Structure formats: C-alpha cells, structure tokens
C-alpha cells in the first residue's frame, strides 16, 4: 500500500467525498476486498482441492458455517490428510476479509481505520498463503509419537511451572494418601485436605462471581478462641461458606461453623459439613470448641434469617435465645460481630410452599424468580456484590464466667451484638451502592 | 478386706477374658489388703468354650433367684455385671436376648440388694446408651442422654439396665457403683459388631454419610475394669481411645471396597449382605454407621485416673495387621 493510494482515500479532496475520481467506498473496497482475494485464490486452487468449495463460501456464508463445510469436504481429499489444518486456517482469514466488506462503504472519513483493516486482511491473507505453501511440502501422515510426548511435557511445564516433576509427584502422593486413608481428622471430623480443596474451589466463586470484599480482618484474633456472630441470609447458607473462605484466606485459621441439625441429617451435605469442621450448634460443642481455642461461628438468626422473604432483606431477625453469648462468656472468649452484605440477593426468596416443605421435613421450600422455573439453572446464585466486615470484638472476659447465668446480662449483650451488626449492615449497604454492579 | 468377685456372662468372650484377667490379678496381686482379689467366680447359663484359668465356674441363670444363693454361698462382695450383650446368632435372639439383658439385670440387682456382703457393683455398659442421631453433639460426656432417643434393641436394653442400676444405687447407697461405658472394642478375637462388620469383604455404607468411629482396646478395657474392682471409683465413665476415624478412612485403610446404599432400606441390605458374608450384625448397627458416635474421656482421665494407652488410630492399625487385607489394599501400599 503506497502513500498515494492512501491519499486517494479522503485525504486529498473534501472531507468524506473521495477525490472526484474515486469515491471513498470504492477505493476502500478495492483495497480491502479485491487484493487479498486475488492473492489467496490462485494458490489455494493450485494446492488444495478443498479450496473451490471454500471460495464459494466467503461470498455468501459466515465463518462458522464454513468451518462446518470444510470437514465435510475433507473426505474427498483423503490423499493428503495433513492439509486439513492449513485449509481450516485459511477460513478465518477469508472470513475477516469478507466481514470487512460491509464496513467499507461507510461514507465517513474513516480512512485510517479502513486502511488498518485492509492491512490486517492483507497480512492475514499473506499468512494463509505462507501456510498453504508449507503444507504443500511432503509430510508423512500422522503425528510422530515423540512430538506428542514433547508437546505433553511442554504443556506440563507451562501449566505447572518449572518444578513440574516435583509437583506431579506431590499430587500423586496426595492421591495415594487419600486412597489409602493415611490422613488425620480431628475429633469433630475436620479434614484439612478437604478444606484446602474446597478453598480452591470456592475462590473463583468468591472473587470473580461475588467480588467479595473483606474488611476488618484484623479484628479476628490470630490465636486463641473467638466466637464470630453473623447475620444469616440467602436461602441457602452460602454466607457460611464465604465467611469460612474469607477467614481461612486472610488469617489461615480454620473457621468452625455451628450448624443446625438439619445440616447433619442431610446426606452429602452433612458429610461435607463435618469435613470442613462444622458441628452442631449446641452449648456443649460451642464451649468445647471455644475452650480449645478455636474460631467458632454462629448464625443466631437460623432459619428465620436465612428463609426470610426478599422484601425483608437486611432486617435482622431475633437472635435466637442468646445462647451464643453464654457460651462465649463461659469460655471467656471475645465475640466478633460479622456483617455480611450481598448474600440476600443471591436467591431472592419471593415465595414459599409451606405444605410441601412440611412434607419434606424442611423449614421452607424456596421459590425464587428463577428456581423452579428454570430448573437446575435457577440454582445458580445471582452475582451480587459481597462485603464481609468483621467488627470490633466485644470482650466477655470482663464478666465472670458465672455471669453466663444472668439472663438480663445475656439479653443486653445479645442486643448489643445485634445492634452492632444491624448498623454495620446499613453502612455497608450505602458503601456498596448497586447490588450487582 | 479381700475380695471375692462374681463375673456374670462368662460364656461370652469378653466376659471370660475379663474373668481370667481378674483371676490373674488375684494371683499376681497382693495376697491381702484392701485391693486384693482372693477368688473369682464366673456364672453363665452355658459352659464357656474358653479356658477360664483360675476362675471358678458356677452354672447359674441370672434370670432366676438362684443367683442370690450363689452370692450368699460364695460370700461374694464384688459383682461385675458383663452379661448385657447385643443379640447374636447361635445364642438367643430377639426377645429372649432382651429378657436376658433386662430381666437378668433385675434379678441380679434384687439378689445384690438382699445380700449384705455385696459392697461393690461394676456394670459393663456401652456408649450405645447415647444413641446416635444428627441432633447429637460432636462428643458425648457422661452427663448427656440420648437426644434422638433410643428406640429398640440393644441400646434400649442398655438404657434400661442403667436405669435399674441407678434405682439400685438409690436403695443401697452404701454400695459403690461404677458404670463403665465402653466404646466399640476392635479385636479379632472378640465378636464385637463393628469388628465383624469391618471384616466383611465389602462394606455397605450409607450414601452421603461418613460417620466418625471410635474404638477402644481390650487391654484398656480390662485395665479399667481391674482398677474399678480393686480400687473404689464410684461414678459413670466413658472408656474409649483418643481421636476418631472416619468410616471411609477405615475402609480405605483396610482396602475394602464400599457399596454406597440409599439410607432407605439400608438396614435390611446391611444385614443381608453381612449374612451373605458369614457375619451376623445386630440390627441397630445401621444407625451407628449413619451418624457415628464419639465420646469424651475427660472424666476417665481426671476422675477415674486412667490414661488410655492406645489411640483409636493405633487400635485400628493393630486390628488391620491382624485381619486379611481387602481387594483394594494394593493401592497405596507402604
């Protein structure tokens, strides 16, 4: 493409009108469409039998259709199977040339962009030509085994980095260890390897889908027990999973969620819950965990919170009977209020089927805008934006352990925790703005 | 004051071993003094197969008042009641087993109440009294009761036996009563339900459930029993090894394939498959294999004063070394 060719398009005459002799569109068409087609065509017809079929293609059909057409044509050219790949590769190039055509006749002063497109098309055509040439050389049929091995090794190296042999060995070792049962679980059933796997599985969901933002992580004690108290929402307790993920990611400690007995009665759910360290929400287990110096988490709203209709979102329900406060006081560990924003929008609960739920032994049977309607697709959580804020710890060691038997004190502390979370929720909602964007 | 110990149910393997252990204590221990055992008497309705060593065997049925005469004639002062057992084939099954467990205990306690010589009762109970359900805490302490309730079979028998024993303690407050709640013993010689289950070539499991299991070693059980006889340790104590093992983990370590079955109809399938493999399982085992059960042994350490010598994992490894490996044991061979 020379300088005067370029001048022809719009740079010489009045804006947008070409230069009297040639209109901009025709000039561009000649540049973009005609040249590459001329270049590519003779070579292809000379080298590849599949070419005529494809040459007919660009004029009428879009690229995907042609791709389908190409393999169908291949059995004809059985003598040279290796040509299959170059033949396919010419297809996109021609497609790009073809798709340029409709854009060129725009009567605006788009000289430079059209030019670029034309240049790209020309380059692509050249590339295609080069490939067609190389394909013409005699290559034995099939891919040599050593090439496959080399490619696989290269792929391993790329995926796993330089120390890939050690990593593969470690991976196989882990698999063997799992298969032979040579791993330890604690008395609650926590399996650290399962937690690690789940952590990796949840990471993309938390970071990319929910765009989880974590605040106040410094409020979680680095050692010793603490009781995390959080609001509950979202129809399915994904907020528990996300809190556990956040705590494990930023503090490297295991969060021990305290769940309802329904969790442990359900097949598979109960099994996984035990393996990630969850246990039944009862005083005995809570105190055992806290006195051991573990991080326990409760969602005192329970089913009232998680199964509340969408219209009541971010309105805290009654905080159980305040049993969590007495557990924390007996164990003399701080209470960390946790405010979770975002879980309410994942499955907006707009309806409930109480009779069917009672029949199935569930606390509620959710109807969301998508759930029974779209079937399994409706079970994909909506991509709301999440913020989890760990609030300032409320100390309980100022009280005597015997204070756990004072109901009035328990109610007061429960209210204090509840109010803290409610106020934080309002603040976070303002900070977050739109729920989804 | 030396002791004459009566052990019930010695035709059973564990009870006969316990009686022999106590008889050995009588020989090796101090001849006189507070904790000394002078004689060990074993009773049962059938003659035991095993060699009882220094134990004097008296054939008596504890469901009849004969047991009272045995206590009076032999001048028994310590009763070790081990004749509360899950039903087994080849002996008594179903309702007659319940009769042996509950009516036998009632008769024995009635005899003890009359006998002025009896000063101590040791009851060999089981952690089955805690039941097993999803509503249970992760670990049971001695003060907890079964939340999900125990409805049938051996666990219900055991709960009733313990209740009668508590009634007996109220009526005879001068008697020292020790209740030992033992977890499942894992031993190839003993016909314990869980060890019989784990010896099957394939293990039927409930799909979606992976129970936590806990075992106890026979030597620990015998040592605790001996301490309860020779020293005074009133109260109820859990006896179990530390730590837990998941059922899936146990199956993998044994190299046995598992068959996941739906929880509906699992109980029937479990008994059928076990019977096909030549084992007889008690009908209440399926609940344990669904939810599992773990007990807390703090009281055993701090109040009773005994430290279990083996953890659950060590007990299991010992068991694994004794049994034949499963078909999958080639995987992860060490």
Characterise the protein shown here.
The complex is a heterodimer of chains A (437) and B (334). With 437 residues, chain A is of the alpha/beta class. Chain A has 3 domains: 3-135, no CATH class; 153-180; 192-346 and 381-432, Glycerol-3-phosphate (1)-acyltransferase (3-Layer(aba) Sandwich), CATH 3.40.1130. Chain A has 18 helices and 9 strands. Chain A has helices spanning 3-11, 24-47, 51-60, 63-73, 84-103, 111-135, 145-160, 164-180, 192-209, 238-251, 261-265, 269-275, 283-291, 302-306, 323-331, 354-360, 371-374, 407-432, and strands at residues 213-215, 226-230, 255-259, 279-280, 295-298, 335-341, 351-352, 366-367, 387-390. A 7-stranded mixed sheet of chain A has the order 1-9-6-2-5-3-4, sandwiched between helices. In chain A, strands 7-8 form a two-stranded antiparallel sheet. In chain A, helix 2 (24-47) packs parallel to helix 6 (111-135) and helix 9 crosses helix 10 (238-251). Residues 34-101 of chain A have low confidence and may be disordered. Chain B is an alpha/beta fold and 334 residues long. Chain B has a domain at 3-185 and 215-241 and 295-308: NAD(P)-binding Rossmann-like Domain (Rossmann fold). Chain B is 38% helix and 17% strand. Chain B contains 11 helices and 13 strands. Chain B has helices spanning 13-28, 66-74, 95-114, 153-171, 193-198, 218-230, 247-254, 266-276, 285-291, 298-304, 312-322; strands at residues 3-8, 37-44, 56-59, 78-81, 120-126, 176-182, 184-185, 203-206, 212-213, 215-216, 235-239, 245-246, 258-261. In chain B, the strands form 4 sheets. Chain B has a 7-stranded parallel sheet with strand order 3-2-1-4-5-6-11, with helices on both faces. A two-stranded parallel ribbon of chain B has the order 7-10. A two-stranded parallel ribbon of chain B has the order 8-13. In chain B, strand 4, helix 3 and strand 5 form a beta-alpha-beta unit. In chain B, helix 2 crosses helix 3 and helix 3 runs parallel beside helix 4. The termini of chain B are far apart. The relative contact order of chain B is 0.13. The chains are: A alpha/beta (437), B alpha/beta (334). Chain A binds chain B through residues 176-189, 191, 261-271, 274-275, 279-280, 282, 284-285, 288, and chain B through 134-139, 141, 144, 206-210, 212, 243-246, 248-253, 263, 291, 294, 313, 331-334.
